[in-house]
Automatic annotation (TrEMBL):
Name of this protein: Succinate-semialdehyde dehydrogenase (NADP+)
Family stated for the protein in its record: Belongs to the aldehyde dehydrogenase family.
Organism whose genome encodes this protein: Aureimonas frigidaquae
UniProt-recorded Gene Ontology molecular function terms: oxidoreductase activity, acting on the aldehyde or oxo group of donors, NAD or NADP as acceptor
Residues in Aldehyde dehydrogenase domain copies: 22-479
Signal sequence region: none
Record key words, sorted: Oxidoreductase
Amino acid sequence: MDGIDTLRRVPANHIGGEWLAHADTMPAINPATGEEIARLPRSDARTVDAAVAAAVAAGASWRKVPVFERARICMAIAALIDTRREAIARVLSAEQGKVLAEAMGEVGKAADGFRLAAELVKQMGGETLPAEDPTKLVLTLREPRGVYGVITPWNFPVNIPVEYLAPGIATGNAIVWVPAPSTSLVACELMDAIAEGGLPAGVINLVIGEGAVAGDAVVTHPDVAAIGFTGSAATGRRIAERAAGKPLLLELGGNGPVVVFEDADLDAAAAAAAGGAFFNAGQVCAATGRVLAHRSIVEPLCDRLVEHARRHVLGDPFHQGTTMGPLNNAKVAAKVREHVDDAVAKGAGVLHGGRTREDLGSALYFEPTIIRDVTPDMKINREETFGPVVPVLAFDDDAEALQLALDSEYGLSVGVFTTDIVRGVEMARAIPAGIVNVNAGSTWWEIHLPFGGGSGTRSGIGRLGGRHTLEAMTELKMITVTMSGGMRP
Ligand code: NAD
């Protein structure tokens, strides 16, 4: 049985608690076969207007629901996601292309995300502050911002939405959510669990459609107070311009690197670099992106990386034994192909992989790939590849390692491998990335920890994760009370 057999309903928008069909449609494609598996709504700005109106109406009462009741509903949603874990994971694999084991992991974490928001919101408080004026009592409270527009990508189409939806509703916001078109079926599955988990109608509204139409209508809508967006740097920039004046959470692209010094544990470094490049077929914002290795250890490191690549079995995500599925869509597959071809044309050497494997079922299969002799000018070093490729660049000393690491428009997540803790921390402090993991790969993160891009880079604005999202999705209100002073001791 593949995922599509477990679809709970015909894909539709979910607005004001109702599943609503839309006359204009677009295809949902199975990336493993290239076949159309369903028709999706291609919603327009009028649909967004209806969703925003539903969110405004529902939000007015939702913000008054006691925090403990909102937390209880988040826990109920988490329990339902757990119950439906395999069914949701099957749809995720069928539509996104990731292997079922990874899809099961993702859905499990989505349930954890609702539980985490439920726990944290019960502890989220304000402050009382002193003032020069002795008659003033000063309080701060955290209040919902209103209607949040949430726009999400296709690489983790269950987890990334939950990073906004769970803290968003826990803190009393209402939401209009536009998922990536190529993962809209699993968005319906998640929405179904949220609605049946007991969330009042209209608090989260799902609008399926093209980003440039439905997403843009959300971003520019006057009744949408704030935006949470995860996706590419280019779209993030456009959203920042179109949403001018609204509070933004922007989680954008990255490009590693994983830096491996000559004193590093090479087994650990290779395992982490390969894991970070091949997990989800490399379609991870925090993916390894590129490896910077001291010239003296390039050979043994590459040998180990090739060993990891060899162990992968590329194929249909539902087949027993498959460890890597197809890429999600033609755009990302074309970019991976272009980056590898550009590197080879400019003199890099492919040690393993490098081929598109249409024979496996569609043009979206790309082999786990190791490339050495990569130079800074190559696209694979400069841009985000978003595929199962490890490009290795050599450096001769610490200064050159830092220079290569800094020579990037991105600053999301970095790994540094060295047994010299001072060197590791100095490197970590010198790189303007949101996250630097010393002796772990660039993908290491847990959902309660702050995740986001460094300032001055193209990787985003703000931090997601744990209390950081709850704080970002709320507004600090200051209330002052002028006392008479008459009853002071
Ligand atoms: P994308 O920017 O093409 O699309 C992301 C979302 O934006 C989709 O839902 C899309 O429909 C929508 N969109 C497109 N144009 C829009 C517009 N003009 N207005 C409003 N919405 C619009 O990105 P993608 O290819 O779906 O996702 C991959 C990218 O996401 C990669 O760059 C990756 O690094 C990034 N990403 C970042 C993080 C992070 O946490 N930093 C996590 C995952 C993915």
